[in-house]
Fold Glycoside hydrolase family 30 protein.
Amino acid sequence: MRLASTVVVLAALGTAASQQIYDIWQTTWDRAKLFTYFQPSPDPINFVTPGPIGTADIVIDDSAVYQTIHGFGATLTDSSASLLNTLKSQNPTSYWQLLDYLFNITDGSNSAGLSYIRVPLGATDFSTNTYSYDDTSGDVNLNDFNIGAAPSNVFSTLRDILSINEWLRVHVVPWSPPGWMKSGTMDGGSLNTAYISIMANYLLKSLQGFSGEGIPIYAIGIQNEPENSNPTYPSCSMPVSIEAQIGIALRSLMDSNGFSNTKIIGYEHNWADAANYPVQLMQQAGSAFDGVSFHCYAGTVSEQASFTSQYPNKEVFFTECTGAIGSDWWSDIKWYMDNLFIGSINYGSSTGLMWNLALNSAGSPELPGSNSCQGGCRGVVQINSGGTWNVNQEFYAMAQASKAILPRDSGGPWGQRIGVSVGGNLDWALVVGAYVTGRVSSTDWNRYSIVVLNWDDSASTTWNPQPVTATIEFRGMQATYTFPVGVTTLWWYGAP
Ligand SMILES: *[C@@H]1O[C@H](CO)[C@@H](O)[C@H](O)[C@H]1NC(C)=O
């Protein structure tokens, strides 16, 4: 019955019912296209009765639907907020153009639609000075807790971003507890275990502080990089059992104080220990944590599977990797797509974030004395003196991925990952992610999108970038497109 009625509907709609590719966003290795939108010329690309496969064959399996993608972005450090605020005062038109280019999720807008921002609770290695929200030694009742210890431009920048993108998801996490809860300094060391419940209360007050500033919080972490203690900037070593106890106490406090919808995300550290710390955290406090997040600085993305294979129902976020000043533009984009913005998503992640949202051309300003970057970290955006800005390779890589999962309808659902595999002689030449985005109206067709990295450039031998003519298989139909060396995002529509 069902098959018969489908045939009738298709026949009634005629050729217009077949899938067509109208929209393409592309970034090429030679920068001839930089997150550039175009329509196939002269005609849309039709899905037709299959012929022979191309040199690569992209096979979409829309019966396999996986995690929802919450978005891409970076961390709004104090340094990023300060630079953006300077741009706003020097050249407000340029500032608002930048925010629109970064954050506008409206379908059809010329914007990456970044939607996930991490915000440190207190100082990091990208602050002007070391501070927490309560630096009164021994203040166990947190009477002197003051969210205003943070630079006010952190909150004003977040409100400006929210005015562009009301669906922005804000994820907060401290780089360290207040120094007095440790051995007197935020720089390195570990939490005095007498302060476990005080730290949970500190995190609750942080959520309340952000609420008071008009910033709703999507997720909170307990400790950034709990396996990193560095005496030159805010950081803290935190064993699994301590993070677990804080998480349990915080979950209870949040549930009884109006934050039951805010997620608690644990770990926030490197792929290399995916089989240990985050797994043990779920064993000890699985009911308190919605999931865990990963950073890129040790290990490989495939290690995310060490966690997801044991906890398939917990969420996985990818929350930090930094660009390095002086590295090669196209090599970076290849690595980011393969490991983060396609790769981490294919290993179960719902987000893809870089480190500083904005820095200047020297990778500054950094916390004086910090040995973390020493002028070597590149922001997603570069803010120049004189009120101008430009975007770096980190932007193009994540913009190409973000575009594929943004809601098609205002207020509509976000994209979900679906099944995809690559065959053909040049199966190694393409790295592919595939997504479905549902609609508000059940009669509207879903959007099916793919993000494709073609890295057939012979970069390791004699440079020779080769376009790859690929077939795309979808529901027994086939489209053909020649992917240049670069990153291509394209989509079509299909009946739900
Ligand atoms: C977002 O982009 C759309 C389409 O270009 C535009 O109409 C709208 O004004 C933008 N929204 C904001 C808040 O800038």
